[in-house]
Specification:
746 residues; alpha+beta; eight-stranded parallel beta sheet; 12 helices; 39 strands
Length: 746
């Protein structure tokens, strides 16, 4: 663990930018990167390589955010100082800072709190209106939309619906197999997508600015929540399991013969039901592969039962996904790309490939992964309050925790639809820098920051607008994260950082997947404090000599469910992976885990994110960065497309760290589940607005014969001061202004 970055005694400046007027005099405005109107060239598609292209075939990557501003445009909460946001201004604000995609994570099932008499096939009209208004506002600013209209977690059942299992049950897992819920879900989709959007005059299904449809959010039969399916719903799922087995083996009697030695007291073949094992059973790896030669071999009893249940869960999800895709395509006429899910499993190593295989019934894959340290407290799922304990961990010495260390299915786009450096972690400046660099290297097609309900910047404020003396944690519109968007988004969207060659191309047969044979390389386990047990992520094991840091060398690809295909290809990464550093196969990225820094060294973008106390100076191809800050992220990006050594217009961006005014923390020992203890901090005061940003201590020398002036910008991209560069031969030198984040070199 690295020490806290905003160290005692650090000089700061108050972060209180004026409301953006979107003046044409702004020298930093990335709105021109977007289309005039999103979708003006047609629907977004994917190509054979698994990358997104616009309707005209031009490649497109998505620098994206999750927003719920539309829900707050008419509401006032007493402890939120900014008042209701303006949706149109919000869209313009995002476009200016490099955003070209938003995700609308709404809930279109009936809202029984406001309408207890709602029928099960009624749609939440307020949520639909928020979606309609958001799509209309975003498309005008060239911003595409991903729709996420259903999440099992908040789904509620009315007593009058007579839903099997009753009104108090959780909806987790039910959409995959319950016909009544599936029928209602299709009715909601029809009312959402087919009815005309009054704010555009176009139904969402016909609107090419709506690029991606997500079938559901964060649900899976391969996650621990499946154990919570009880009563009539569990019996229905077990009956489906029995039918699956009878079809596979000929009869349930034959199943029992094949499973000899692995029967369960809860099996009820006379009722057509076979018991479903606790998911824990599926997280246990078999000792040898293949499991059996003759399927009647006694060695295959329990192992075969586990394999059959894994297959059943995966095929149940796949079948739901395929049927829903067919409904959207054939009955509703949807031309959008479709993502089936974005969740994880009870075992990253043994079950994730089954989960991702179930997504192949649709077009696009996705995951939700966050980064942050330990946070323990009364409201740790959504708020920070005095008395909370936390660890302030930077991932610069833990590269296995990079959220986009994702194994991608060959030929399919990959998205991270929720992610953030979550407060009270204070290393958010790592985020945009590392995401831009490594999403470019590995070909991840979009990253969606989570989340905002504010028009522009989010000030330190109550977590929900009602709870005093609290601070929200799921926010990105902070100085060091949102403030770092422009350079990172420009480099990522323009393709300035090269994609690497695959370090692994693994072929996985369905039998490998069902039998839960460990893959050659698995993703590190992500962590969600709301749903995962324990205090932190547990790294997945691997069945290969490939280290987890191989993700930092180049793309990791898998072909899922491919029979008789080309054997897996593993690249020897020893030339790039050393005990203290990892270099990309392109040589443009270097991650030093011992000293805690990462550099980007490409012709059009160069930069460093670092704990500078360990390594204060970094000489790159054209730029030398030297910093006296404890921590920060510096980037120089060409704005005219020319290499930095020849460019006549360069954005220089530098982010440090911030805390609310009056924030106080004290060293503490944090007790973890299981009896371990780690060093961390206790929050003594959450503070108030404004953010206090650590002053920049950065010197920059750039080898470029053309540059003569440096224009300091405010947070709205407006010029506030012109500095003369100190020239020596073909080099220009600059001391970065202490109370700014952007400088334009010309």
């Amino acid at each position: 663990m690295l020490a806290i970055g905003l160290h005692a005694g650090a000089q700061t400046w108050p972060f209180s930018p004026p409301r953006d007027t979107f003046s044409p005099q702004a020298l930093l405005d990335l709105r021109s990167l977007n289309e005039t109107v999103a979708g003006e060239t047609g629907f977004v598609r994917s190509n054979a390589e698994g990358d997104f292209v616009r309707g005209d075939g031009k490649p497109i990557r998505f620098w994206a955010v999750n927003t719920n501003v539309a829900e707050r445009t008419g509401s006032v909460r007493p402890l939120w100082p900014l008042g209701p946001p303006d949706l149109a201004r919000h869209a313009r604000f995002l476009a200016k800072r490099g955003v070209n995609m938003v995700r609308l994570h709404q809930q279109i099932s009936p809202d029984l709190n406001t309408k207890p008499s709602a029928a099960i096939d009624d749609i939440n009209e307020a949520q639909r209106d928020a979606i309609w208004r958001s799509v209309a506002a975003m498309r005008k600013e060239g911003i595409y939309t991903t729709l996420s209209p259903y999440w099992a977690s908040p789904m509620k059942f009315a007593p009058g619906w007579n839903f099997p299992g009753g009104p108090e049950q959780s909806a987790q897992g039910l959409l995959f197999f319950d016909p009544a819920l599936q029928k209602a879900y299709r009715a909601w989709l029809r009312k959402l997508l087919k009815e005309k959007n009054p704010y555009t005059g176009i139904a969402l299904v016909d609107d090419p600015s709506v690029a991606i449809l997500q079938l559901q959010n964060e649900d899976s039969l391969l996650f621990w929540t499946v154990n919570g399916i009880k009563g009539p719903q569990r019996q229905a799922l077990e009956r489906r399991f029995g039918a699956f087995l009878a079809q596979k083996y000929g009869s349930l009697a034959q199943v029992q013969d094949v499973w000899k030695g692995a029967s369960d007291s809860a099996d009820a073949p006379q009722d057509g039901r076979m018991a479903l094992l606790n998911l824990w059973e599926l997280t246990q790896a078999p000792k040898t592969w293949p499991l059996v030669g003759d399927p009647r071999d006694l060695r295959g009893g329990k192992a075969l039962r586990r394999a059959d249940q894994t297959e059943f869960y995966a095929r149940t999800m796949y079948d739901f996904n395929a049927a829903t895709v067919a409904f959207l395509r054939k009955e509703l006429g949807a031309k959008q790309l479709i993502n089936a899910g974005n969740w994880k499993t009870g075992s990253t190593e043994l079950l994730n490939d089954a989960e991702r295989w179930s997504y192949t019934a649709a077009d696009v894959d996705a995951a939700n992964v966050y980064n942050g340290g330990i946070h323990k407290g009364k409201h740790n799922g959504w708020a920070i309050i005095p008395g909370d304990q936390f660890t302030n961990e930077s991932i610069l010495r833990s590269p296995q925790l990079l959220p986009i260390n994702l194994k991608q299915t060959q030929g399919r786009p990959m998205l991270l639809t929720e992610g953030n450096w979550v407060m009270p972690n204070n290393h958010g400046a790592e985020g945009p820098f590392l995401i831009a660099a490594y999403a470019s290297l590995t070909g991840v097609d979009g990253y969606y920051w989570f989340a905002t309900g504010d028009e522009g910047w989010t000030p330190p404020q109550s977590a929900n607008g009602y709870l005093p003396d609290s601070q929200g944690k799921w926010i990105f519109a902070t100085p060091e994260i949102l403030g770092s968007f422009p350079a990172a988004a420009l480099a990522y969207r323009m393709g300035y950082i090269a994609r690497g060659t695959p370090v692994l191309q693994e072929t996985r047969t369905l039998q490998d997947i069902w039998q839960r044979k460990p893959p050659l390389l698995s993703e590190a386990t992500s962590f969600d404090p709301n749903r995962d047990s324990g205090d932190r992520a547990v790294n997945a094991a691997t069945a290969s000599s490939l280290p987890g840091s191989a993700f930092l060398v180049g793309p990791v690809l898998a072909s899922l469910g491919t029979e008789g295909a080309t054997p897996s290809r593993v690249t020897d990464v020893s030339a790039w992976v050393k005990p203290d550093r990892v270099q990309s196969s392109t040589s443009q990225l270097v991650w030093n885990t011992q000293l805690g820094f990462c550099t980007v060294n490409a012709p059009q973008v160069q930069g460093v994110v670092a704990h500078f106390g360990n390594a204060p100076s970094h000489q790159l191809r054209d730029v030398l960065f030297s910093s006296g800050n404890a921590f920060g992220a510096a980037m120089a990006v060409s704005m005219d497309g020319a290499p930095l050594g020849q460019s006549r217009r360069i954005l220089l961006q530098y982010a440090t760290q911030s805390r609310p005014t009056g924030w106080r923390e004290a060293p503490a020992t944090v007790a973890l589940d299981g009896g371990q203890q780690v060093s961390g901090f206790t929050v003594e005061a959450v503070g108030q607005s404004p953010w206090l940003v650590q002053q920049a201590q950065l010197d920059v020398v750039i080898h470029n014969p053309h540059l003569r002036t440096a224009t300091v910008l405010d947070m709205n991209g407006m010029p506030v001061q012109t500095l003369k560069l100190k020239r020596t031969g073909n080099s220009a030198a600059l001391r970065f202004p202490r109370a700014a984040m952007y400088v334009i070199l010309q």
